[in-house]
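User: Show me a protein chain along with its predicted structure.
Assistant: Here is one chain, sequence first, then structure tokens.
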Amino acid sequence: MESLVSIKNATCRLGRSKNLKITNFEIREGEHWCIFGANGSGKSVFADLLASKRVESGSYVEYLQGFDPAKDIHFVSFEEQQELWRSDNRLDMSEYSDDGQDKGTLVIDLVKNSRISAYQDSSLLDKLVHSLSLESYLRKGIRFLSSGQIRRALIARALYAFNSSAAQLLIFDDPLESIDIESQVIIKNTISEFLANFTSIQLCRRPEDFLPSLTHVAVLDNLRLTEQGEIHLVKTSAAYKNFIGKRPSIPLNLPDAVSEKVLLPSEEPIIRLNNVDVSYGKLQVLKNFSWQMMPGDDVVIEGPNGCGKSTLLNLIDGDNHKAYGQDVFLFGQKKGSGETIWELKSKFGKVSNELHNKYLRGWRVLDVVVSGFFDSVGLYDESGTTESAVAKKWLETFGLGSLVSSYYDEISFGQQRMVLLARAMVKSPKILILDEPCVGLDNYHRVLILGVIDLISRQTETQIIYVSHTKNEMPRCINIRLIFTPSSGGPSSVRIERL
């Protein structure tokens, strides 16, 4: 097997004071590598270097003769997925159409338009569509797909474009992240089935997400390659075992609550929904849905991608207009009976992928946390010393006190997620909504955030609504489970269990 890509003595700058250093690395045709490391270890920068997306002085990257990284390397990533959604939504023409609908980019067009050659291999396309269970989605717009559905479409596009020569490289950036178990199994099986005709790299932060097709592993720790080689050898190395054995220290105490408590009679539900219906066009998401959250309840909402979990959250926290005119009661008051959206938001804290992606460059960590007092993305109002002091206390509690003046976009993904949790808690909300908060986190930060959530439940008046597509991945404080089960052609059924 010939060397497809090799790197020697590369140094990549990350932010103002960090450098990723790769002394020696090589991928040969037909190999399937995992670049394995924690949040902030440099995996994405390493992949960009391999793909010639970064030009660093003094770095040496060499490709097989005739290999063009611009054409012969393809990424499948959550960032690519988000950009497709944003681009498609910018072109939304539904408000100008007669029926008020615009499907946008169809799945079939997304997959087929990636084919490099003019020749359309219909047999390969049919095999990929069947293997990835995309038959019922081909004529749907990508903006209406769940995270798991669009991930499968992107993988179909990549395999359709590149399944012809081993002298091509596919880079899968955590392909199993943020999707349900069913989609994970489908993706694993498909990649294994079609891998013979290409070379691949998986970027991964958790060993349980390793693809079964892997042949080699490179461990990135603290911006350095500490171990690399055949997977069975690396897994027995001391560097690998030390890396996966790291465990965080959970804080003992949280800062005191600073906001006014929401007082309700103990028998009064905090949230109550009676026979609620939600439809989007012909798609019925919820039908005759009833549920109430009582004082003392900490709730997990479970179910696969696209089953209605996010719709329910949006009915509760003030963002979905379909709640108005229905029996939706929050804190003893019917929604739409005179309260403002900001009055509602003041009672909620939230951590979600959507919020995570809204904080772009330019904001310092302290500003991000203080913005939680104002329910804004970024800090546009004058904040006082009290708000700043509370924000600093929460950062110190989470072990992030040294990052107060750092820029949010320069800290690791796991640190960013903890910063958003501090942002949600500074106003001591009555309800903390955690929409898949462990997505994108390595095991170290998953243990940390779940431990802190338990601490919040024990030491504050805040109650938890925790959303997960991963069965049984939840904090220990959970005592109510809502399980969404999709039904064919209709709304999901919902089962409520007390734990």
